[in-house]
Amino acid sequence: MLYFDHSATTPIHPDVLSLINGLNQDIYGNPSSIHAAGRKAKHVVETARKQIAAAINCTSKEIIFTGGGSEANNLVLWNMIYRNRKHVITSAIEHPAILAVLRQLEHLAITHTIVPVNKYGCVNPEDIDSAIKDDTGLITIMLANNEVGTVEPLQDIAKIAKKHNVLFHSDGVQVLGKLPIDVQKLGVDMMSFSAHKFYGPKGVGALYIKEGIAMKPLIAGGSQEKSLRAGTENVGGIAGLGCAAELVTKFLSDVGRTLTALETQFKTKFSEQHTNIIYNGFEDNHLPGLISLTIPGIASDLLLIHLDNEDIAVSSGSACSAGTISPSPVLKAMGISDKQNLETIRISAGRDNTSTEVDQLIKVMTHAIATIRRNAR
Ligand SMILES: Cc1ncc(COP(=O)(O)O)c(C=O)c1O
């Protein structure tokens, strides 16, 4: 299998897997128990908290473990029901775990404004400034987009949030392990993470909450995670998240170089063989290794089937909308026509991909495109 869909999920790192397997075998205590077995499990959870905190430059007190990125986003947004200022500002290219929640919250009189993006998928901080109202309580803008990889100007947005004394959350799910993250430098108040996007296990995530920000739980009924996330902790998963965060931070610059090289190789060689290809996203500042490309005249679902038949995994739009044939709202928001939208695929490389694999991908894609064109005649 040639796996080029790392933005959907990553294979678990072997060190992370062996850690989890070992822990699930040996560390069976409940972290809330006061006996030795419980204390051992608690120690595992707290070690992981330190690891993720170190990876994003915060203190471990500022980390809450969740059941993934979607839950972390939900926790932030559902807290709006307790806040005095009930208006949220977000962008048109956020993940559904933001936009769908905001639609739900409308029923509870939490209003929102969606700011547009330009053709590269960039939010203009001035649009955020203009959208601030007296009752704006939260700005939520992702650090980088999952479909086109565009990195958003978080530092500028943070200044605006600060000026208006508005909380600033960012969905950082796609970024950990690909670009450095320093929550202090970025100036965010909250940031969401998901282990399975950085070679950790699925179903476990984290939320950075800057010290001093009052929060109430989404899942109530226990004092775990400072009473912000009830339920016996997923000890193995949390340990896996911590270990993965440490590993990807350690190898960040190497992996970044590899991903950039693979991306450049693909774009250079593919463009030599195919004309009229459109690369979407912001060339100057995007996630390394994520390539969103539109191939005019080639329906992405057909191309995906051809590649799948050759045991190659890429995706059309985001994983969350895979399987549907409706145009991606992200590409739509960037002004891409519905026709081109449905001719767009996302290739996302990972740490284990090789230059030979990229050549093989280009070869199979070229063959598939020729077949699709021939069949269309
Ligand atoms: C930007 C972004 N946010 C949130 C999520 C959801 O994360 P999880 O799968 O951990 O719920 C994803 C996953 O696709 C994502 O890409």
- Strand neighbour order, sheet with most strands: 2-8-7-6-5-3-4
* Domain tally: 2
Rg from alpha-carbon coordinates: 21 Å
Spans where pLDDT lies below 50 across 5 or more residues: 318-322
- State the helicity in percent bands: 40-55%
**Text of the CATH class of the largest domain:** Alpha Beta
Strand content: 5-15%
Q: Order of helices and strands, N to C?
A: EHHEHEHEHEHEHEEHHHEEHEHHEH
Average pLDDT for all residues: 96
- Compute the separation of the termini in Å: 31 Å
Gist of the model:
The protein has 377 residues and is an alpha/beta fold. The protein has 14 helices and twelve strands. Helix content is 42%, strand content 14%.
Structure description:
The chain is α/β, with parallel strands linked by helices. 42% of the residues lie in helices and 14% in strands. The protein has two domains: 2-9 and 251-376, Aspartate Aminotransferase, domain 1 (Alpha-Beta Complex), CATH 3.90.1150.10; 14-250, Aspartate Aminotransferase, domain 2 (3-Layer(aba) Sandwich), CATH 3.40.640.10. The protein contains 14 helices and twelve strands. The strands form three sheets. It has a seven-stranded mixed sheet with strand order 2-8-7-6-5-3-4, sandwiched between helices. A three-stranded antiparallel sheet has the order 9-10-12, with helices on one face. Strands 1-11 form a two-stranded parallel sheet. It is globular. The two termini are 31 Å apart. Residues 68-70, 95, 97, 142, 146, 171, 173-174, 194, 205, 319-320 line the site of pyridoxal-5'-phosphate.
